[in-house]
Hints:
342 residues, NAD-dependent epimerase/dehydratase family protein, decarboxylase, lyase, NAD(P)-bd_dom_sf, UDP-glucuronate decarboxylase activity
Amino acid sequence: MKQTNLYNEDVKAALAAFELPWQQLSGKNILVLGATGLIGGCLVDMLMQHEGLDYQVYAAGRNEERANRRFSAYLDSGHYHFLPFDVTAPLSVDISFDYIVDAAGGACPQLYSEDPVGVMKSNIFGVDNLLRFGLQHGLKKLVYVSSGEVYGEGDGRVFEESYSGYIDPTTVRACYPSAKRASETLCICYAHQYGIEVSIARPSHIYGPFFTENDNRVYAQFIRNVLRGEDIVLKSKGEAFRSWTYVVDCAMALLCILLKGGNGEAYNIANEESNVSIRTLAETVADLAGRKVVFDIPDDASHGNTTPITKAVFATDKLEALGWKPITLLKDGLAHTIQVLL
């Protein structure tokens, strides 16, 4: 995949749409964990493409080859650095990071059955390793990228940050939401016990280009289908209802939280104009590519590691109070994603 002008235009449009106190980053070192993932990668793009770039960006991940491909446009910049790092291990570098955004943590559903222990460790150990390092190296703030899955199954209501729904901790599938919940609490405990500043981001379902080849979330599967010239086959009625957010809007939200978010506060990231069912999502992707949706529902539809959450939509008043608003509609964001990947 190549970083195309269309995607860069989206990034620059988002940067131009919001007034942020960028001066806080002047001369600072910023570490982005999960940099080769969907959200972390877009955040690196935002930081590197800001016109007032006068800080150092450290993109951390386990795969340097992937990072070099993903961030090829920045390799000759004196402001970009790749840091090989597995968050489950202590961070051992002679660099003081002023700001850290932890967007690592195994969001691929396939991992929930194949490596649930790794999913939990990458979140809980990651937060602990980063904050312990930060305490010793003058960290100003950490933003932990959690998940809307912390709200559990829900009861049909719109999720506000104060809500806490039901999660069955005795299931393997609970590895992800339980790890996110525990990591959020660990952040708050560090803030309370050691006086370190943290904010928490809870993204809804995020989509966009540059997802990894192993990403088997539904939107990625749908896009792969149509790019191969295939129809989209649904194994259910597609009634699950979700909030979807374009990755560029999500990355801008993270910057708002980093620069303006309150200490110890959590913020939902979602686009209320992009709340749709899985079926509608599939139909939108198919229509954009001139394909169709077909149904092949097995007699036993309870298969795989499917989330039990039937409705997940989010209130964003708290984040919008910081001055953030999503600027990309679902159809436009999906169209741009498909065009970038063609």
